[in-house]
Amino acid sequence: MQEQEIRCIIIDDEEPARRALASMLEMYCHGVKVVDAAANVPDGVIAINKHDPDLVFLDVEMPGYSGFDLFNFIKEINFEIIFATAYSDYAIRAFEVSAVDYLLKPLVIDHLTAAVLKARKKIHGANIRQRIEILKENHDQHEFNRLALPVADGLLFVEVADIIMLEAEGAYTHVWLRNGTKVLVSKKLRFFEEVLSARSNFFRPHRSYVINFNFVTKYSRSESFLLMDNKASVPVSKERKAELESAIKQIRVGL
Fold this sequence. Notes:
By secondary structure, the protein is α/β, with parallel strands linked by helices. It has helices at 15-28, 41-51, 90-97, 109-122, 128-140, 189-195, 238-254; strands spanning 6-11, 32-38, 55-59, 80-85, 101-104, 146-151, 154-159, 163-169, 172-177, 182-185, 202-206, 209-212, 216-220, 225-228, 233-235. The strands form four sheets. Strands 2-1-3-4-5 form a five-stranded parallel β-sheet, with helices on both faces. Strands 10-9-8-12-11 form a five-stranded antiparallel β-sheet. It has a three-stranded antiparallel β-sheet with strand order 13-14-15, with no helix packed on it.
């Protein structure tokens, strides 16, 4: 069965970058057709309204309006988006926790083909507006307040403040939420530890757990465990015990 053609638009202020991406798509991404290109957000909005694309490649940093400003001019987002950015570290985490695809500049062929494959599966799917809103919110702040968690049947949008604890299970993570829900997420615990590292109320007391101090009801120093609001007992490893107790002292000082 032949794959359906993907009609895409490239929005980037640098002409060489637009040409390079169009060429890479033609050579390595069969079934992808570039129907238009724009050098700024206003022209990009015109191109989107004209062509009704399936996919938009969108540069983040552009003069006048940034890539994020595009969505202030579009009422309905019925296309998938792949951002192109030179950013790294925190900004990249913002894309990842918001479930929005991105490519780092300079572009790498393998990353491009993988991003297009992912986009093909999500085109005309749900939640794109919500994912963009979370991305904008997370990108503009110094810590993440909402996460888009990849679950078996799609995405679950949660407030970070509602996370009680996380438990590793191989390449997956169990996430316990305030409402009693337990969710299996296709991300490693290390990913969440890094995402939540800026928040002093999250701590990794054991290689298999990350906990939210706001939901700890008891710490047993003699038996080395934490009792959580959801009645779960979380072990404290010998290696993390001193650091845990130091963190608890800081919390007590702040009360």
